[in-house]
UniProtKB/TrEMBL annotation:
Residues 223-372 form the MmgE/PrpD C-terminal domain. Residues 404-425 are annotated as: Disordered. GO terms for molecular function: lyase activity. Belongs to the PrpD family. PANTHER family: 2-METHYLCITRATE DEHYDRATASE (PTHR16943:SF8), 2-METHYLCITRATE DEHYDRATASE-RELATED (PTHR16943). It comes from the Bacteria. InterPro entries: MmgE/PrpD_sf, MmgE/PrpD_sf_1, MmgE/PrpD_sf_2, MmgE_PrpD, MmgE_PrpD_C, MmgE_PrpD_N. This is 2-methylcitrate dehydratase. Residues 55-194 form the MmgE/PrpD N-terminal domain.
């Protein structure tokens, strides 16, 4: 399997659609990394290599893109490695394709059991990006993947702490090291990649190298939080759009959602901004309280607001059995006051592959991330972005601006009694 993937990656001839995806991913990822400049974790990340530091920066504020079928943050690994090694769009796409296919083979069961698929699949993908940048042949790329196997770990227990972004950075660095070892002539049994995949619950037989470079495309986040929160935030905003709801008058909030969609949402009573990015309860609270959703709305002070904590305590999550991925089924949010309720349901949030971000949505996100920096958007190119990251990652945090979050959904306002939750999460 490693040799088959390596031959595909080494011989990849990107299509126009592949290259368009690579350009969008570059712009999105570099802008998000710039927005993280000055974050405390980057001082710690100085112990990592260049690729690792940049990967940490692009992941720490949880604003990076996501490959839905593999539940991996592909670009947060593959863009920084491509930039650090001078690989460009083709190297990025080769690694992204390997990461997507390995993650799809590992499947939802791997993620739902607690692994952080971005780092398990990411270390091997980083080895491919760096190997293509170095000009390794198929044998060298296969050996690089095998040499990255010892670093292919990471668990969801790290979510809400510095360890989450740092384990992504370590995966990126490990791939660069593995490619360097392969280039130096290190031997490896490439069958180790299949053994690794099986041990983690994957099936080598389902790895398919046909189709576009990144099968299924990538989801772009509109809100700076875990992807599992993009849909409930949008649904809550739709539930109260055009009506006046006093947060102090809210008595109960129901969130009906498939059980699979809350897998990474492990912080039910968050105490800081990092935990708030993995809290379903805080997501619906901020969607009700805040007109915009930028960086301040997911900061420590915002999470600790008394009015936010009150709403967090009013959330009942009704878990349903209807699928096994982050956008399974639909989410339905019901806001109860003393006299009426408002509700909305939603399947695909803005930015998902089914509803790609518009030019304006992506432009507004990039502008938010670059606000307060000295980086013009047109400097984010494959040739210039490494220098952008060199120049900016030691500066202060940006001033937040508005992020567009409009989305189509079904919403209703009704007068009804509260409905008891069938199952509380």
């Amino acid at each position: 399997m490693a040799v088959r993937l390596a031959r595909w990656a080494g011989g990849l001839q990107p299509t126009a659609e592949d290259l368009a995806l690579a350009e969008r991913s570059l712009r999105d990822t570099v802008a998000v990394a710039v927005a993280a400049r000055g974050h405390d974790v980057l001082e710690v990340a100085r112990a990592l290599g260049e690729a690792g530091r940049w990967a940490t920066a692009s992941h720490v504020i949880d604003y990076d893109d996501l490959h839905m079928e593999s539940t991996t943050h592909i670009s947060t690994v593959c863009v920084p490695v491509a930039l650090a090694t001078g690989g460009g769009a083709r190297a990025y796409l080769a690694g992204a394709g390997v990461m997507a296919r390995l993650g799809m083979s590992l499947g939802w069961r791997h993620y739902s059991s607690g692994w952080h698929a971005t780092t398990t699949a990411g270390a091997l993908a980083a080895a491919v990006v760096a190997g293509v940048a170095r000009g390794l042949d198929a044998d060298g790329l296969a050996r690089a993947m095998a040499l990255a196997v010892p670093a292919a770990g990471g668990v969801q227990r790290a979510f809400g702490t510095d360890a989450k972004s740092l384990q992504v950075g370590q995966a990126a660095d490990a791939g660069v090291r593995a490619a360097g070892l392969a280039a130096s002539g290190a031997t490896a049994d490439t069958g180790a990649v299949e053994d690794w995949l099986r041990l983690l619950g994957g099936d080598p037989a389902v790895v398919d190298v046909s189709g576009p470079a990144v099968p299924g495309g990538l989801a772009v986040k509109i809100y700076p939080a875990c992807y599992a929160l993009q849909r409930p935030i949008t649904a809550m905003r739709e539930a109260v759009r055009g009506v006046s709801v006093d947060p102090a008058a809210v008595r109960r909030i129901e969130v009906h959602t498939p059980a699979a969609t809350v897998q990474p949402l492990i912080h039910h009573r968050p105490t800081d901004g990092l935990q708030g990015k993995f809290s379903l309860e805080y997501a619906v609270a901020t969607a009700l309280l805040d007109e915009r959703h930028g960086f301040e709305e997911f900061g420590d002070e915002a999470v600790r607001r008394p009015e936010a904590r009150r709403l967090v305590d009013l959330v009942d999550t009704v878990l349903e059995d209807s699928g096994d991925w982050l956008l399974a089924g639909t989410v339905r949010v019901v806001v109860h006051t003393d006299e009426e309720c408002h509700e909305a349901s939603l399947q695909f949030p803005p930015g998902s592959p089914q509803r790609p971000p518009t030019h304006d949505e992506l432009g507004e996100k990039v502008a938010l991330c670059l606000d307060g920096s000295d980086v013009p958007a047109d400097e984010i190119t494959w040739a210039g972005s490494a220098q952008v990251l060199h120049r900016t990652l030691s500066l202060g945090l940006p001033r937040p601006t508005r992020i567009a979050g409009a989305a189509s959904s079904s919403s209703t306002t009704c007068r009804c009694p509260a409905v008891p939750a069938a199952q509380r999460h």
